Amino acid sequence: MEDPEQDIASVIFGLTTVASPDLQRETVETYMTKDVAFEHPVCSVQSGPNSREKVLKVYQWYRILSPQLDLKVEHVVFDTKRDIMYVEIVQWFKLFFLPAKPLPARLVTRLELQKIRGLYYISRQDDFYHTTEFARLVTPPIGPLVAFLLWLGGIVSYALALAAQVAFGVWQPTADLVNGSGRGGEGGNYPGDHDELYETPATSPDDRKDG
């Protein structure tokens, strides 16, 4: 790649949504180093002599599992000092044996680039999914259930932390002990509050006249 920030979207499409296995192979061999490493929640390819061929097989299996695939590159950040790129992607991946309609699943891909004779090549790829997004990717019907369980986990964490603080005084901020709340007493505001962002502006005719 001459300009990774501009070129990476077409490279990703060549790896994932391209219609021909020949074009997919060409993309892997053109833009990845021979010893490329690959990490994903369900598979891993360690860097080694011609590990690129193993990564190609991973991408081929990816397309075999989902013949109908759609993908959108939403955001790209390129750290030119470290030659590391972060790409935010949304994909619609449908396992061929599941009748369920695919749901959009978001991931962040971290790419380590290697510059050789003025061109950039992918030397390592790491794919990161949130738990809910990965559930939506693999088995769309259980996506809402996973989201609910995570929400429930947040509620349980809040309740258990409060119980431990009240019952045993464990990990309790000083402000809570002095004032009986986390607000730091009357009139206490924190930099992250920004209450004006949450106030609904007046919309009555009288208010508009006063303005």
TrEMBL record:
Entry-linked InterPro entries: NTF2_SigF (IPR057514)
Swiss-Prot/TrEMBL keywords: Membrane, Transmembrane, Transmembrane helix
Keyword Hydrolase carried by entry: no
Ranges for domain SigF-like NTF2-like: 1-166
TM helices/strands, residue ranges: 145-171
Disordered: annotated segments: 182-211
Keyword Chaperone included in the entry's annotation: no
Name the record gives this protein: SigF-like NTF2-like domain-containing protein
Organism listed in the record: Coprinellus micaceus
